[in-house]
């Protein structure tokens, strides 16, 4: 599997290349040059696979054997998912009738981002130890990414992580999760402004090629393909547990901020998973406006809500247009 920029000016990159990158040089995001298409028989063969098994299946389709062996990859996934509080990792609870809740919050910080970042942290550490390389991770957060990112790499000798925390915009629990981690490689800074305003200086850092090179700077926000790749697995897992028969269509409602999570669902659908999706937003409705009427503009101030992770109003590059290159999402609010 090789990777290219979503905007076309780079190609032929390895998984390791894009894992240790931020934005592509042309301002796009790194994506696979092609997405594997699964047949109905292949889907049926995966129907009873565990969640860790599906993470392995998805990762194996996007990472070559030359970059990490199947034994190493399986061990890495299993070891990092041990941190979750339930053996199933992802649980599904039935409510009324055909309505179900997919619980993605059983990780160490209680955020769904633990699912991907626990594995991404393991992959980074695997390659860093192999090459005796050091990196600096720069993270901007509206709350949950910061906590998950810190937990995924805390204490690792080859990694320093810098998290920028918007003052007054995260929950008290999230602030405590971030500011009470005492490890030498963890650096937390509280900044003025909201998470959208925070994105601007971060983008400038990643677009400064000499700065990136001098500090071995990488991102593990949702611009990183590794994050999206692992998230594909929970769509497959949810589908197999919810469908009456493999092949029937299941609709998934996905709480959406910058669209990193639902992008993984778009890619799962692109790979042949029979799902439809509804992007559910709050007053900060950039995704709904973009998909329903092509309005990709900033619309006033970010409104503080009870769900800080969804409080996004600017044109984030982690929307489905860059990572999936196709429109698969229903627009509903």
What does this structure look like?
It is a single chain. 40% of the residues lie in helices and 15% in strands. The protein has 13 helices and 11 strands. It has a 4-stranded parallel beta sheet with strand order 7-6-5-8. The chain has a 3-stranded parallel beta sheet with strand order 9-10-11. A two-stranded antiparallel ribbon has the order 1-2. A hairpin with a 5-residue loop joins strand 3 and strand 4 (100-103). Helix 3 (51-62) crosses helix 10 (225-242) and helix 10 crosses helix 11. The longest helix has 19 residues, at 113-131. The two termini are 36 Å apart. 43% of the residues are buried. It catalyses: L-serine = pyruvate + NH4(+). One of its GO terms (molecular function) is pyridoxal phosphate binding. Its cofactor is pyridoxal 5'-phosphate. This is Threonine synthase-like 2.
